[in-house]
Task: structure prediction
Amino acid sequence: MKIKLTLLLLSLLLIAAQSPPARLAPTSPVQTQQSIPTPSGMILYTKNFQGGDLGARINAADKALGANRGWIVAEAGTISTQVRLNAGHKLKLGRGRFELVNSDIWTGSIVVESDTAIYGEGIDKTVIVEPEKAYICIVSAGTLESEQGHLGTGIRQNIDLAGFTVEGRNTVAEGGARSTILLGNAHRVHIYNVALRDTTCLGISAGGTGLTGKHAEDWIVEDCTFEGVASQNLNVVNGQRIMFRRNKFLRAGKTCGDGKACEGVTPIDIEPNSAADVIKEIDIEDNLVDSSKSIYFHGNGILVQNTVGIVGYGPVRVRRNRVIGGPLVPNFSGNIATGIYLARASNTLVSGNEIVRVGHAGIRLDGCSKVVIEKNTLVSTGTGGILSFEVMNTVDSRIAFNSVTVDSRSPLGRGLIVETGGSDRNVYEGNTVSEGVNLVGKGSRIIK
Result:
């Protein structure tokens, strides 16, 4: 009996080792606070403090709070003195415009410590204006610390941001190193009901360097709007348990003063910088990427990559997002290159997404392994000889129950799934494709 059980267990293990991955288990819904808190307890008003500008008055109120927990309520005005918001203090920005004045491109205008929050009165009610000659608006104090010769290593925790718009005005290309909201390796971050409009660098970035073993952790960015943001709108470079949900990404991209695109742009980007970084438990769900009104053709809608070779990558889950490159009309290929692009990713689920009228592939897998691509709908993706759904140099993956079709209003698209390069040992099941599924891998198969 023991021998039979042993043989059965060995058989099951062998089947599991040879089979492509099953669907990755979904995470439980996370409940978060959606309303903007009303100041209570100890409240100090900046109008009652002295200072040459609003920043100086906020700092004076912060100093008066000392070690006490409490609120600072600020009226609209100009912030030219760098604000330092210390632990236990919450800053409430009233209605109106808060103009940031800063000429140092490596420093932020508002620095936050642990256990802090910045709240406004709501999107477009409270407007923070990007510095004319700088980029970083809100920054964690942890990003100012260094360790073992590496910058941006510090960790701050329990940071909330909600209820305001950041409006861009810098017209000089930034270069892809700085972010409008830069919190580095912070832990327990909640950003909600925030809008970035026409800002001139990366939008919101989770994670700093991982070269000293630290990373961002427990972030939720939800119900935010990114409009005309110049570079990657919302990105993870080094983090775990990061959730991006119910955000809107509209008309991605911005032109700078020379009339050219400020940067290349992808609205949602998972992009580690070194093998020491961490990418674990990343959820991208229920977001809208709509580049119908973008002013130029740009990169990808959602990019998930591991080109630096992180060991233990994932899981990453990309679920129920809509990516729209443009309207379904004749002779128009859209404003997005690839809808969802996986580059050398593994342990990744792409499920239930809708991708409409992008110029290149609706979904492209490049050098991936053990990924699951299921129940996605692609409409008029690809153009002419450009493939609509490409599986390139990808192995041991499952592509199932996807729909790849062409809408008659946008006949430039294609309706096929194609393996290319060294792709092999992939399983295809239940896909609806008007032009078929083409395989190159000897070990790949179609289940009918």
Q: What stands out?
A: Helices lie at 2-18, 54-65.
